[in-house]
Amino acid sequence: MRTVLLERIPWAVPMPALNVKPTRGVKRELLGALLAPSTWSTTNRNKKCICFDSFIIDDGKCACEAGKILVNGKCRECEDGRFKIQTGTDSCNVCDREVIKGALETIFLGANKTSATSCAYGKGKFSAPPDVDNPESTLDLVCKDCSDINHPEGFDCSMIGLTLATLPLKDGFWRRAPDNHNIVECENLESCTHSSNHERCAEGHTGPICSVCMDGYNKDSVRICESCASTSVSIGFYVLLVILGITTLYLVLRKIFGKENLSISNVTQEITKVTSGDNHWSQRL
Question: pLDDT above 90 covers what percent of the chain?
Fold first, then answer.
């Protein structure tokens, strides 16, 4: 049982425990308004005033915390589809009518049902301002279908409780900002891989449609931005291969013609035979 001490609150007076029972004919959410807050406290052995289990101290009185309502003498979470911002015994607000048009249930988003952000919108839906092209035009939100967006296949709408800003993009798609509903399919899919909803481009990529390389990156042969350090390593590797190839060719031709007879004309002639598919020279090895 969680207890809260009121020993430092001068106006908290020890009171006997009361058995609070629901009153017939009174709606549950109104029950708390008919009872004095001090009735939800008792005293311990040291005659210190403590709140009953499920209550908290609010302005020196025992009350239900935000996201909870008084039901049958105990503070319980708001029902699905409702939330409550303030402490006390007021009734919970209805998501659908008072907050977000089209919202049908309430979920936990890292906290209790204490704000409109806990109102969920169901799979395949998200909340957004009525005018999604101007997010600052109103504070009201509406529930929208993911299918109403251009390129709906570019969003992952499999979760509930999504907002326009938290709609996760699939790899291969790009949008200018989290609050923008217009998305574009990237020309190079590998440049638009998302580590998070705020990182809209793959590493090393930036700009519109992730088509610009960040400082320290250059585009490779397939137009992917790679680190300049890795590009230098690749160039060095290819140079090494060329040197090894030339050295190998020299040793082979030297064995064929001998050191004294090896000349530029002989080398040119043998290279021509190799490139033309004539491999009779190999029989001389």
Answer: 1
